[in-house]
């Protein structure tokens, strides 16, 4: 018997050895398949003509939109950014987890100081465990109005999409906004007056307004398809301030992914994306060979707020269509119906359809249960300001915004991550409130005494590995609104959404802990709430903010300081040598 035991022990040790060897080989092969991609981004002023007018716009490499970057899951990106423009700039890689590489995340004065005119900085990071569509954009002032592009993450080499039918072709669809002015001048004027900024003059698809605008038909974007094909559209809302509906005439869209995570497929005729969000859809060439408009227009949930009420178009053109071989300017494409601008019911039906596919890892035992109000506010006119010209908010006030009554103020001499890493005092505090300082009827008639938030650079500290739940509650201060809230450095599960005031006694019964969608940007419903969960497994300083840029300009943001864990693999990397100085 002892002999058999010895033989078994030897075989067990050998099996363990060979299993370990196989795992090492598999890891090595995986690393061998991964690639490093090198790019140069030159930030520069470029003459761009839209809506009959040419203006110098800030671009990357003279392109608007900027270059599309394509990688595989597991690859590394190395992007050298040279600033030849007259403004400070940073680049944010929207939705990339940036595991331990927070120095490459990009938000100005949060993870880095800006790249000054004439300066440069190289972003280095690896994309791990993400597949689908993300994007990159400037994260300084309003430069992202023209400085943005798609970031496409294909499956690992040798793998395919988890779709029943593989797409024949793929097309990035970048929705944007265009001003007949320098967007920096637009936001500076709004900051001076304290009022709302001018609305955009057009929406765009891949940088072009489309047939419904003046001087635009000649450059309307054409998206090819052929009869019998199934194609993948990667839709990104890169607009500055506007949630957008998107649809294609006579065609159904099968949603298969969002924010670089796969979802259980569902079919819809219309999408709604808040700024920052991405949605991957399959479209089949199952209609008569012809030309069909793709169209996008505003979803506007805020009452009595000015917005751009125009419609941008591109053309889905069948390759076998008679128009494909010649100029068919006289043959108008078929126009799709679009929801009315305030169709919240359609938005709710769409957003509630998202479910994760595959195994989920939703935290159940919660260490940090947080409740954040999000919304606008009004500051009284300072005594030294001219009320008529510098206080153009309602009743002679200035617009502001906040989370938990704290209007976020960015530092100017150090980045938050630099101050944390070097233990520099006086740059920020870690007393951001876990709950609203005062409870009130968040979506009802709010007392004017709650309209004025407190300015501050307040962060919330999280221990490494904390299991976090956040209730994000819209408020009706000034006006209620759908807020796209983006968290840097993390994906999170959206476990519930609803209208009215969140009820901690009854609303947890609505939690989806089985297959909730995994996103990096959640559209908090107008006059409603959303609940998200994540594990704080990425050390650093991570911004959470409304992705309506007018709102982050007013202070609708906060940041999490996630402490290092144990050892090197649970700690943020050292800052790169070329990190810009303030």
Automatic annotation (TrEMBL):
GO biological process, one term: lignin catabolic process
Keyword entries, A-Z: Apoplast, Copper, Glycoprotein, Lignin degradation, Metal-binding, Oxidoreductase, Repeat, Secreted, Signal
Enzyme class: oxidoreductase
EC number: 1.10.3.2
UniProt KW Signal keyword: yes
One cellular component term from this protein's GO annotations in UniProt: apoplast
Subcellular location: Secreted, Extracellular space, Apoplast
Pfam families attached to this UniProt entry: Cu-oxidase, Cu-oxidase_2, Cu-oxidase_3
Main location: secreted
Alphabetized GO MF terms: copper ion binding; hydroquinone:oxygen oxidoreductase activity
Domain Plastocyanin-like: residue ranges: 43-157, 170-320, 431-564
InterPro entries: Cu-oxidase-like_N, Cu-oxidase_2nd, Cu-oxidase_C, Cu-oxidase_fam, Cu_oxidase_CS, Cu_oxidase_Cu_BS, CuRO_1_LCC, CuRO_2_LCC
Signal peptide: 1-34
Catalyzed reactions per annotation: 4 hydroquinone + O2 = 4 benzosemiquinone + 2 H2O
TM helices/strands, residue ranges: none
UniProt-listed PANTHER family: LACCASE-5 (PTHR11709:SF431), MULTI-COPPER OXIDASE (PTHR11709)
Family: Belongs to the multicopper oxidase family.
Name of the protein: laccase
């Amino acid at each position: 018997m002892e002999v058999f035991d010895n033989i078994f022990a030897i075989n067990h040790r050998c099996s363990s050895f060979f299993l370990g060897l196989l795992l090492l080989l598999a890891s090595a092969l995986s690393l061998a398949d991964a690639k490093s991609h090198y790019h140069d981004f030159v930030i520069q002023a470029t003459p761009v003509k839209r809506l009959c007018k040419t203006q110098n716009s800030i671009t990357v490499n003279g392109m608007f939109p900027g270059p599309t970057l394509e990688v595989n899951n597991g690859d590394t990106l190395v992007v050298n950014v040279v600033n030849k423009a007259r403004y400070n700039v940073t680049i944010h890689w929207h939705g990339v987890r940036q595991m331990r590489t927070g120095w490459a995340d990009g938000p100005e004065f949060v993870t880095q100081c800006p790249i000054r005119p004439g300066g440069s900085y190289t972003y280095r990071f690896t994309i791990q465990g993400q597949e689908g569509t993300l994007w990159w954009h400037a994260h300084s002032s309003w430069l992202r109005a023209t400085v943005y592009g798609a970031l496409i993450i294909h499956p690992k080499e040798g793998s395919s999409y988890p779709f029943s039918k593989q797409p024949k072709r793929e097309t990035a669809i970048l929705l944007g906004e265009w001003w007949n002015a320098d967007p920096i001048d637009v936001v500076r004027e709004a900051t001076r007056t304290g009022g709302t900024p001018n609305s955009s003059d057009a929406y765009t698809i891949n940088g072009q307004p489309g047939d419904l605008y003046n001087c635009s038909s000649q450059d309307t974007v054409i998206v090819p398809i052929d009869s019998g094909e199934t194609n993948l559209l990667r839709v990104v809302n890169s607009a500055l301030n506007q949630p957008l509906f998107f649809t294609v005439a006579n065609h159904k869209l099968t949603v298969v992914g969002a924010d670089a995570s796969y979802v259980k497929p569902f079919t819809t005729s219309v999408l709604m994306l808040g700024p920052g969000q991405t949605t991957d859809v399959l479209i089949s060439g199952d209609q008569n060979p012809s030309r069909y408009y793709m169209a996008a227009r505003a979803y506007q949930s805020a009452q009595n707020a000015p917005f751009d009420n125009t419609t941008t178009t591109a053309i889905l053109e069948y390759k076998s269509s008679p128009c494909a071989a010649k100029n068919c300017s006289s043959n108008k494409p078929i126009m799709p119906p679009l929801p009315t601008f305030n169709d919240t019911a359609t938005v709710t039906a769409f957003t509630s359809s998202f479910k994760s596919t595959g195994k989920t890892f939703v935290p159940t035992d919660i260490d940090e249960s947080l409740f954040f109000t999000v919304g606008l506010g009004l500051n009284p006119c300072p005594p030294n300001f001219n009320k008529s010209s510098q206080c153009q908010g309602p009743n002679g006030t200035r617009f502001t915004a906040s989370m938990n009554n704290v209007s976020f103020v960015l530092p100017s001499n150090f980045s938050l991550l630099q101050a944390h890493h070097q233990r520099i005092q006086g740059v920020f505090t870690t007393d951001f409130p876990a709950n609203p300082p005062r409870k009130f009827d968040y979506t009802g008639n709010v007392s004017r005494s709650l309209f004025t938030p407190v300015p501050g650079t307040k962060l919330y500290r999280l221990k490494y590995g904390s299991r976090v739940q956040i209730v994000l509650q819209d408020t009706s201060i000034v006006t209620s609104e759908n807020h796209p809230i983006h968290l840097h450095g993390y994906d999170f599960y959206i476990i519930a959404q609803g209208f009215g005031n969140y009820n901690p006694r009854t609303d947890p019964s609505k939690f989806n802990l089985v297959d909730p969608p995994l996103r990096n940007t959640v559209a908090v419903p107008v006059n409603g709430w959303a609940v998200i969960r994540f594990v704080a497994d990425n050390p650093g300083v991570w911004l959470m903010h409304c992705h309506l840029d007018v709102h982050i300009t007013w202070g609708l943001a906060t940041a999490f300081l996630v402490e290092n864990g144990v050892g090197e693999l649970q700690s943020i990397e050292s800052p790169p040598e070329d990190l810009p100085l303030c």
